[in-house]
Amino acid sequence: MTLTLDSACELHPDVALRPEPFGALAYHYGNRRLIFLKHPDVVAVVRDAANHRSLREVLVENGIAESRWPSFISALTSLAQSEVIRVH
Amino acid sequence: MEPTAALEQDRISDAEATGTRDSAQPQIVEELLIEEISIDGMCGVY
Amino acid sequence: MSTSSLAAQMKQGLDAPICLTWELTYACNLQCVHCLSSSGTRDPRELTTEQAKAVLDELRDLQVFYINIGGGEPMVRRDFFELLEHAEHCNIGVKFSTNGAFITPENARRLAAMNYLDIQISLDGANRATNDRVRGEGSYDIALRAMDNLRDASFGRFKISVVMTRENVSQLDEFKALADSYGAQLRITRLRPAGRGADTWNELHPTAAQQRVIYDWLMHHGEDVLTGDSFFHLNAFGDALPGLNLCGAGRVVCLIDPLGDVYACPFVIHDEFKAGSVLEDGGFTHVWKSSDLFTSLREPESPGACASCGSYDACQGGCMAAKFFTGLPLDGPDPECVSGHGEHALSSAGAAPRPSMDHSKPVRLTVKARRSPVLVTHHSGGSPS
Questions:
Q1: CA distance C70 to C258
Q2: CA of C279 vs chain A CAs: smallest distance (Å)
Q3: Residues of chain B positioned with their CB less than 8 A from the CB of C313
Q4: What mean pLDDT is predicted for residues A41-54?
């Protein structure tokens, strides 16, 4: 399952996000997975995703340059596979 | 030394990038934005 | 940021532990010969229920995701379920380690009804004889009965945790089969010469050949079997084992002991590795963030005597606890260094430090009428030294 710019996502309710100097730690209480979000921008996108109808919107609203979008889509796809975010 | 359980994001080639391509489009920036840790209790712990 | 910087980030320490071990009591119904905490009798200074709840509140504020509860035998505490429920209220996950004696059918059902609770049953032999030689007569049956009760209560997936010794390395496949038969997850961990482990280390720690067996077996089964990252010293054999492969003591994890003292990890319950106490001003938070010990553990390590060895990047010089309790310097090889550098260092090692406390019960040697004697160690009493 690959996410696209048209996907609508939200942070999974079983996930805790804890800020760290370099970004955040995401811990999924259901599947026990622990993931580092290694840049504050990806943290911002993950937190904000539920407020938007598409990933394109979230990325634009959070000022992410288009040249970075493929990396973000790839990271968000990994997060979806780990159930840290989910399509809604 | 690299954590072997890391989930690294794949390289995205220009051809796979979504959206339209402008001939003046800057290069795609590749970033490692997330990494999964296998942390079963951590060394020395139950 | 590159991948390698993640391990570096963790070595510098995190703002809060990701998880930590909390030994709730030094009391125990068993007297395993290799007990890392020399448990057996309760200490009169153990944290009260209110003090323990205050610690949980602090951990909640620090956003610690989960705690690993152990002991002694944590279920011996009369407030055990009360503390579990408080942890649940605080949104702190609990993973606890037990010998299973108190996992009655009723308790199994009670545990099955709780949110975010993982259970780990200790077992050190795939059959009664091997297990009971180390954990005491009846302990194998106790453990299996606990597993049956968890299964019958539909608890879900629990773990079976095995400490690898000279006597059970040959049983790795049987342990896996046992875990599979319960739908349980197998966990194998490294024996350290900590607590009572120091007294039987020479007889029980795996041989050099057995270390290779463990490494090869883990490379084959790695993704299915947990290790608590305790075998990274074996990475010098070749490809790195799955896992983070670094020592998290004082950086990512630590220990809170039954008295509220904070140590770098459960295998170094010794004044040398004591960072402070949760009962001091600033509580656990202050100890985690500002103690001298943890600050120094978070500084970059130098390879020391291992500098000339090409394996240092892979093995990280091994385990602090293993070195300390065999009298080896911390900036040198692990006693079980797979290249043999530890053995060499041991020949000129100083006297090994003794644990700071001993809560073992006084034990009478039982002489059994069979070829191999039961491994039992003597202790002169349960009071702290």
A1: 10
A2: 26
A3: 1
A4: 96
Give this complex's ipTM. Answer: 0.88
Q: What are the structural domains of chain A?
A: 9-87 (3.90.930)
* C-beta of residue C28 within 8 angstroms of C-beta of residue C75: no
Asked if A38 reaches chain B (Cβ–Cβ under 8 Å), the answer is yes
Q: Please give the residue of chain A at the shortest CA–CA distance from C62.
A: A18
Quick check: B43 and C319 CB within 8 A? yes
List of chains touching B (3+ CB pairs within 8 A): A, C
pLDDT in tens, C249-294: 998 889 999 999 999 999 999 999 999 999 999 999 999 999 999 9
| Chain A with chain B: Cβ pairs closer than 8 A | 71
